[in-house]
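Below is the data:
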Amino acid sequence: MPTSRLGGVPTRLGDAAPAHAAQLAFSLDALGGTGAENRPLPQRTSRPLPDVAHIEAWLTIDEQRALVEQFRVWAVPPAGLRHPRVPTGHLMSVQSVCLGWHWQPYLYSLTADDTDGSPVKPMPSHVVALARRAVIHAGVDARREFDPDAAIVNFYEPGARLGLHQDGEEPSDAPVVTISLGDSCTFRMAGVDRRTGPFVDIELRSGDLLVFGGVSRRIFHGVTKVAAGTAPEGLGLPAGRLSITVRETGLSRS
């Protein structure tokens, strides 16, 4: 598919919002920890559409902080954080960094061709394990083992949004896993064959999980609003929302 010849615009992640010092002690071990501080929070699962699962408070605050810490590493060049540009030349308001495969509207590659051309950062094993756990917990279209090989990590500054679109560049029809961190957002879903109403809107809060697959795998979806000032204190993010969207592309590296 065509891409913009102008390329994306590299950007730098801002400083974290102020927090109490006692809330900043965390590590990557939290993602697999078994201590009392990592006990699961109360969870509620809803199914707003067929083969779509929304699990509230899926991640503990320690798990969220550990992912934010990792995001700060991923965001640094080479192949770092940037505003992608769509083929028409419009610069997207979200900032994005990729793992495993580099995505730019609307294709995948193994190098950051729309910025510095560097090899894409590898897909971390703990993100793969987390996404597999997500699919099991969500109970969405788990006909075989989920084999994720790419993540698109988007940061929404205040005022940023994402228009309705399909995740259609991947040959694989395996589920898509989205972890939401930071400020809450309004996540909008339309239909597989339409981006117009009626819509189904859900609120995604920090630590929430959304998985869609099966008959809803190619559904039109987007983010219409980010609610400023709703993030947990001490998360380590600037003002805004972070989404980690993990998928199995079905693409070959040969």
Summary: Residues 61-74 form the longest helix (14 residues).
